[in-house]
Amino acid sequence: MKRINQVSPWLNHEELKALEVSITDKWVTEGPYTKKFLGKILDLTGSKYALPVPNGTLGLFLALLALEPKEGDEIIIPSFTFFGSASAAHFAGFKPIFCDVDPKSYMASLENIKNKISTKTKVVMPVNIYGKSQSVKPIVDYCKNKNIYVLEDSAQAIGVFNNGVHSGTYGDMGVISFFADKTITTGEGGVVLTQDKEIYERLKLLRNQGRPSSGTFVHPKFGMNFRITDMQAALGCIQLDKLQDIINLKRELFSYYNSMINDRDFISKPNIQSDQQDVPFRYYFEVSDVKEELMTHLENSNIQTRTFFYPMHLQPSVRSEYGKQDSCPVAESLFKNGICLPLHHDLTKADIDYIAACINRF
Ligand SMILES: *Cc1c(COP(=O)(O)O)cnc(C)c1O
0.90 cut: is pTM over it? Predict the structure, then answer.
């Protein structure tokens, strides 16, 4: 029996054709496809500026470097996120302070963040989780007043709008990832979005060895190499053309899961927003106290499952570097009860019938 995998990017002959062009034209580092890809990103997101980066984690790292942290500067990060959010902050020289999240949106609310604000807070990093379209406006407005920067981790949020505003464009900066399991992929890759000309100029120098343009060997600033390849951008152009089809399919399959899984007292299914702004990342649900058993049952039925994120404030690396952290009960309960199921282009309704039947039999 075939195994139903968590991840399967929608790549076919169109991406292959674009790759062939990028190899034939011999522009293998940033070239015509990169320019085209960035243009398409600006069109889609409405962002003023966009810069390509090798992956989402390095995008967050680069964005934070541009804010020039000083000793003791703090950044507030939701405990419920992928480890890259925390790692980027650590290596950029910020002290990560973890806050809890809202039990419905899984994202940090303004209240969650306010609880952790101190005189040392320099940045707040709202994280878009599972493609939910919750607005970060209250957080950004609050931070603006207090001269705190907002960097949105929109790694999972390509195509996610709230009232016409694309995720990652409301704060000072936002980062989108194009890793293999994201809504669209370039293999590895990402973009940093910003609306601020000064930050944009700093990012440009930082990502290109501290010089305003390549081909010169005079470096006014220190900088690194955060370039991508034109092959990645070639994939990205084709993937962006498919974005709306991918989003439509994900929404349809997500609703189908919801309708096929029976209501049971130990299962709590995600609610679907009627305005359909969310771009579901995985299918996910919470169970009370039977996560391990249900996951084993599904794995034994050849269905690849994933837990939710292990909370950042409990990470062994975080504890050994920064000491014991305050508890975040919601993030802890999400890890304890959450299960993710596949949601991708190669998944059929028959697959979902099968997965739902396995859950309903449990
Ligand atoms: C995927 C992801 C990242 C990291 O992106 P990469 O491209 O894999 O480095 C960061 N934050 C969140 C929330 C993610 O889902």
Answer: yes
If you measure from the C-alpha of residue 314 to the centroid of ligand 1, how many angstroms do you get, rounded to a whole number?
A: 19
**Which residue ranges have their beta carbon within 6 Å of ligand 1?**
55-57, 81-82, 84-85, 127, 153, 155-156, 177, 179, 190
Instruction: Give dist(CA 292, CA 314) in Å, integer.
Output: 19
Tell me the chain's radius of gyration from C-alpha atoms.
21
> Which pLDDT value is given to residue 64?
98
b/e burial code for range 57-90 (CB count within 10 A of at least 16 → b): bbbbbbbbbbbebeeebbbbbbbbbbebbbbbbb
- CA of 27 from ligand 1 middle (Å) equals 27
pLDDT band at 275 (very low <50, low <70, confident <90, very high): low
**pLDDT tens column, 302-315:** 999 999 999 999 99
**pLDDT of 21 above 80:** yes
Q: Which of 80, 178, 179 maximizes ligand 1 atoms within 8 Å of its Cβ, making it the mutation to test the pocket?
A: 179
% residues pLDDT > 70 (the chain) = 99
> What is the Å distance from ligand 1's center to 361 Cα?
34
Cα separation of 223 and 211, whole Å? Answer: 8
* Mutation to probe ligand 1, out of 128, 136, 153 (largest number of atoms < 8 A from CB): 153
